[in-house]
Amino acid sequence: MNKSPSLRAYAIAYLIFLYAPIALLPLFAFNDSKVIAFPLQGFTTNWFAEMWADQQLFNAFGNSLTIAVSASILSTTLGIFAARASTRYTFPGKAGILGLIMLPMVLPEMIVSMALLVVLMAIGVPLSLFTIILGHVLICTPFAVAILTSAFQSLDRSLEEAAYDLGETPASTFRLIILPLVMPGIISSLLICFTISLDEFIISYFLGGNQTVLSVYIFGQFRFPAKVPAVMALGFVLVCLSICLLTIAEYFRRRGIARSGGKDTGGFL
Amino acid sequence: MKSGSSPGRFGNPEATNGLLMVSPTAIYATLLLAAPLVAVVVYSLMVDSKVGLSSGLTFANYIEVWTGRIYQAIMMRSLTVASLVTAITVLLAYPVAYFVSFHVRPERKSLWLFLITIPFWTSYLIRVFLWKVILGYNGVINSGLLSLGIIDEPLTVINYSVGSMVATLAHAYAPFAILPIFVSLEKIDRSFLEAGQDLGESKLMTFWRVTLPLSMPGVIAAVLIVFIPTIGDYVTPDLIGGGKIPMIANMIEGKMLKQNDKAVGAAIAVTAMLIVSVVSIVFLLLNKRFLRGQK
Amino acid sequence: MTFSSDKPNMIEFRDVHKYYGDYHALRGINATIKAGEFFSLLGPSGCGKTTLLRTIAGFEDISSGAVLIDSKVMDGVPANQRPTNMVFQSYAIFPHLSVEQNVGFGLRRDPRSAADKAKAVAEALEMVGLKGYGKRAAHALSGGQRQRVALARALILKPKVLLLDEPLSALDKKMREQMQMELIKLQRQVGITFILVTHDQEEALVMSDRIAVMFEGQIAQLADPETLYRRPNSRKVADFIGTMNFLPAQILSEGSSCEIEAQGFGRMTIGADQVMGATSGEGMSIGCRPETLTILFDGQTATDRESMATVEEVVYYGDMTYYDVKLDGAQTAMRLSMRNVPGRPVLDIGTRARVGWSPGAMVLFR
What we know:
With about 270 residues, chain A is mainly alpha-helical. Chain A has 11 helices and no strands. With about 375 residues, chain C is α+β, with helices and mostly antiparallel strands. Chain C folds into 2 domains: about 10-235, P-loop containing nucleotide triphosphate hydrolases (Rossmann fold), CATH 3.40.50.300; about 245-365, CATH 2.40.50.140. At the A-B interface, α1, α3, α4, α5 and α6 of A face α1, α3, α4, α5 and α6 of B. Chain A: This is Spermidine/putrescine ABC transporter. Chain A: Keywords: Cell membrane, Membrane, Transmembrane, Transmembrane helix, Transport.
């Protein structure tokens, strides 16, 4: 392990570059000025109050929560099926089927949402929160599959056989052995899908009809310069929220690895 | 380990169970992804007139999209922006991935990765918007420099330009590039490096002849993982470009919704998928060749 | 190493075949395993020994034939209803449960009271030498301890047959030898049938009452360890179990005893039981184990026969010295092992030596 101060300095500078724009959020969220510009004008919590008083925001947030909760549960469920199938069985067309399931990861979201929009309009499905959920499940599932596959992979197949050998049925084996051991993976999949869905914009924008969700609301606020400080306040709250969620997700991911006795390789993806 | 009567005697229960298990997810993906994509391809081969879509199949939309000046310009711009962003992101990310993999103690690696990934999971819209705030005419940089007396008038080169779009996107996708490179660096057996130096190479040459080639699969994965979402980005051209410098995604939206010409919109979408596929295939082939060259 | 054959049959394989697609994994297995027997399935990897074990447990379906446990055909009986329990190669200790939860896992459906179950768990742990380990977390155990937990967990259900899938392969040499002895004792103590899968011939010889040697989905020889070692029925079995030297040979006359001629050894008479395999008429060879050959030092005389040879290679092992010697008139050298005793010199390469041997230790392979 040789020291390399210049590399280290570079890596730290890189981290600062990553975080610098985000650091502006609290700066201007508490800045007592309608204009986002230096020099700072003094401390205020007005923008949080303004944000808090906005009924539209709460509606949008409520919609987003509904969507994120539904999408994360649905995509994690679909992810469990796919991850279990991919780690436990070999079957014809496996690569192709899993490739299709993972495809949204490498497809521009605009194309996914336009393709869905075209079909939904053609068969006359009205745009609503439900159609957003359909789209979000599609783009969240690959992430769920990726996370859950690694959870199922670290599961020794003989554990299942042992439970079965000791008198359990396939169903009770799943409940007593498999589920507890992949539970950390399930929780981290739920949290990550929740975060992705909450943050997603393009599908929500095009498939939502006249229903507004949080990201679409934020996008709308950008058009009004007077609203910008309140958006900064909102952004600050959101950043704090997602850091909390991610910390919890990371905690469960590590606990899952520790439980199944594996080694930590780090990272979500 | 099947219960019931001697399942081994009927076909292949393993395959049946596997297909059954994957079917909910596969059916969902087929109905909501494969079918719509096929629909887009079909649309792209029809003509959208005021009366509705024609029934005959034609390549007219593709000819229009591939020869039209505006379309060409927008596609070239998208390619340029995506390539620039990819190059910058990957080049900047490599040393960081290298640092974390080779110079950070194993128990601290997770923390570093965690710190690198956090910004990626915070609201994309707000991150992009922050760059608008930073680079705008009355933005953070201009107002900062003005108040410090370094400039007398706001800089205009930094707002609403391809350059500011590249900066924004490079920042947005930075963590994407680090992870795959890091993973491929982690996989390198450290004794190769010792062998390299043992055989008389300097550290720099060892890096050049051993580490870099072995990490190439990660670099190529990083290239794809940054390039694909970047070329299809919608928000950045809209916010940072102020709607004046659209990219492919904005063009698809414009045709499909604002001008209600689904056929041409679909043709652009298919073209975009083709571009993405070609670039992916080229890089995957490069990767294969690279791996074969090493053997 | 004696085993009475009047015990009832516990396991019976009747012409068992198993296909994986086109791959013929088990090719007509016929064998019976007696109640209370310590039985080993021995063979190289891929020979089908684990597959055969898993057909007993119920983890593999068979393509044709029948597997009987305690005289009942097991066709269609799932693994969770068979009177067998298994110790897995990876031990398969449930990582999220404590030691006692692991051991008591199979008692969940047992109608006994919680207190009785706890007592059973404590007894099982004591039996495997893990008294007081009940509250430990499973992932904090060493390899040897996991092995014991796996044994306790299987034995607590009082199975008719205990199946052991390469249970010692993950342990280091010292631990492995210790566990071999413990397993033998444990088997005598509980008195049930143990079926062990192993690729380690020494392990099989040490532990088993009888051994089935398997190659390519078939049982090549099924016998007690001594017969297997002294009278292997084919060159392949002889090669797999220990070391055996082979020299070309031919039969001169046949009867209740046979007159044969072997390269280097010359003519000798052996019993008909020393002639192995069906008559094929060509490519016959004679085999002998390294320890049945001795170098005769000055003043020593052969107990049976002797031949002149040249030392071609010497390998010193501390307690033993291995020599490669070429008998006069032989084309290839033979391995020979000598115990090193005080005052006995280690010979140099090229030395001429007298080699003592005995026709009774020879096996002829047709």
